[in-house]
Amino acid sequence: MLCVVYRSRRKADTFVYLPQGKDFSELPETLTQAFGQPEQVMTINLAKRKQLARLSVDELQQHLADPGYYLQMPESVENLLNTLPKTAANKESK
């Protein structure tokens, strides 16, 4: 199975995976509006892969079967200021 990956130009580190042959316009309207103009970045042959960066090929194929796409959002980013000790944060603000 071939899978086409699109990157959002509007949302950083956001991708949509679609089975080859499925048109981006078939996605829910709320998703396409938030995603913006898609940019195709690659085609993946899932038969030659077992694992992707964030999920297994089996999990991806389940998403491609229902609901028909996989939306990859950015991982949450930790605010490094929250890791500073309270006293260090207070010294920085003075």
Automatic annotation (TrEMBL):
Gene source species: Idiomarina tyrosinivorans
Highest rank taxon of the organism: Bacteria
Family matches, as InterPro entries: YcgL-like_sf, YcgL_dom
Name this polypeptide is given: YcgL domain-containing protein CWI84_10390
Domain spans labelled YcgL: 1-85
PROSITE patterns registered for this protein in UniProt: YCGL
